[in-house]
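User: Please check token order:
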Amino acid sequence: MTHPNKPILALDPGIRDLGFAVLAGPRLVTSGVSPLRLLPRQKRLSESRRLLRQWLKAYRPGMVVLEQTHRHPTSTFNLVDVLAQSVRRAALRRGLRVTSYAPQTVRKSLVGNGKATKREVAVALAAQFPALRVYVTQDRRWKERYWQNMFDAIALAVHHQGHPPSRSRSCG
């Protein structure tokens, strides 16, 4: 079980955008999106590792939570899994516990529906953290998709806090 005084670092890995959130008890310490798409593809993995080191040093989490990823036969789509595995290994090397959850599991626990839309999850989280309301409705579709990476990371942290995995499901 996660130590209650230690923050949770949650990451929504992506090859274009990396959503992140730090949750300490009921308080959302920080959250956002790191736009990896601005970098050449070959530098995105190293930038993700750099960001992870920065967040680990700044927030000293007791747990890292990732969205579950899977290998893909297409190299472009497989980069998300490569990124997630790299983050997992880096956290484990630092002695941190790491776990991952399927998006459907997180949606079911937060909204009551495993097939809920990303917008429904964002609305539920904005109800819990009112400062996030500004990110729910955007004037452009690309902005909405961008901020959904942040909401996915927050959802992972909130889900983990309410449903910590048994030892058998946790890695690390």
